[in-house]
UniProtKB/TrEMBL annotation:
Protein name: Protein germ cell-less
SUPFAM superfamilies referenced in this protein's UniProt entry, alphabetically: POZ domain
Pfam families on file: BTB
Matches recorded under InterPro entries: BTB/POZ_dom, Gcl-like, SKP1/BTB/POZ_sf
PROSITE patterns attached to this UniProt entry: BTB
UniProt KW keywords: Developmental protein
Top-level taxon in the UniProt lineage: Eukaryota
GO BP annotations listed: germ cell development
Amino acid sequence: MGQIMGSMQSNVAEVFSNRRKRKRSTDSTLGQEEQAQLGTTLAKKKKLLTTTQYIYKALFKEEKNSDVAVMVLDKVWHLHKVYLSQSPYFYTMFNGTWKEAQQNFVQITIPDDRINVESLDAVFGSMYSDEIEIDPKDVIPVLATATLFHLDGIIDKCSEVMVDTINAETAIHYYEAACQYGVVGVKKSTFQWFQINLLSIYSKQPNLLRHISIDLMTALTASQDLYVMQTEFSLYTLLRTWMFLRLHPDHDPEDPVQRAEAQRTQDQLVNAGVDTHTPSMDVAQWKYFTSRMEERSFLATPEGQPFVPVFQKLRTQYLTNHYMDLKIIYNDNIIPKEWLYSHIHSHWDALLRIDHGQEDSSPQQLDDDQFFENCMRCGRLLTEPGYQKWRWTGFNFGMDLILIMDSRRLNIRRHHRHEHERVLSLQTKRKFMIRTTVTSINAQRQPVFTQTSEICSLSLEKNEEVPLMVLDPKLVHPLLISINLLVVMPPNQSFKEVVPHSEEPTSATSFSIPISEIGATCERPLTPSSADDSAVYIGDSEASTPTSPSPRRRITWPREIAVSSEADALFGDMAC
């Protein structure tokens, strides 16, 4: 009996167990079907248009229930006043006393050539949607259209796109548009990009360089934050090329035919014994400036007058520190020779003061504006980490300064070797002022992180080395290094405010006067009354100072281009 009861219990349990299994299986099967149906339902819901999408499609694209037609650039849009009124331009039109408020057809005249049908369609469509897609190649027309209709949200979106896409191809157009439409953020970002890349990029892309306006180039040349690669003479050669390209819009240095012709001309000049000190692609500009028969500088001519403000901002005092630089500049005859003579006089005066140990020869008690206005600008690109050291060429008032990058530290050293003592300052200590800026850039050469030091005054003994900056960990290579340096008190440069229109030599400057007769009428005794008199400054006691020389008789330098008859024939055949 017990066995029967046990067997019955076992069968009952098995029956119920099988029922539960079938129920679970059925439930599981139903669950999968329901999930499939649910998934299908969700997929269908995703395909439904949102309210915004429906409004955009039905009211803007299909133009349903339009209550106003807007005609611009010969195209008509059938739109809705309630949506257009999001723009202050249209809100005033439809809600004021203007005649358009009572009309259902509006014609708008566009005074801006940057605005086109595509940008109008994009901006009108944005009023029916909560987003707008802006392609970088269309951003300026969209910005112009948004500015016309006072749509700040779209203007801000355009600004973001422009700042993110600044490069060599877009920077000039972006800067001009930012100035025209008052987009301060874009103007600031593009100007900063120019400061970093002007000499690094545009010196290699002349057909982009020529489109930089005179106003923009003037501002860049004046900037203390301009990354001058390598020295001020590099900036001079860039300005010479830029000026030539703007004067000759048909000249294309990148054209293969013109490049081949320039190379042939360069070879002929070399065979004729003429050293142009310039690459073949620049031989046309070399000919244009050096073959002028006028004695006056190019800036004094009608063609050169528009470029005077740019060269006035050039730190021309640092163009006379190297023999070859000075020779090229003199032969170009772009800059007035009076400027060069004044700089040479100031340099010699500073050297004599340094040699005499005058305290006022070293820069001191200068405010930031005076320092930035007169400092020398030098720059260098470091592509990879590691130990590196370099100097910038030119006679630096008897100081041989070397920059050293060692790991994450940038140092400066006053280098002094005994075999060079004749051209180096023998003063135990030399004072100077310096500021250091290091910038990390991305693939578009946009600044990622910048570290700048304060303006500091240093006093270095011979062969002394001191740190300038410990690099922040955020600075990664490639690195751009910019140095602002001032080693002597800046002279008065008010003479650059005037460009002489005539530089013809006068009889007083003729070399026919024997050198023994020069100064024959001087009242100063031939023999100093004391040893101290031999080092005094000679000049007008009241009207002249060592840093502001009085007018003097000008010495005419001979032009140093030895041109043969064969070269003369080349000049006649060459075309710019």
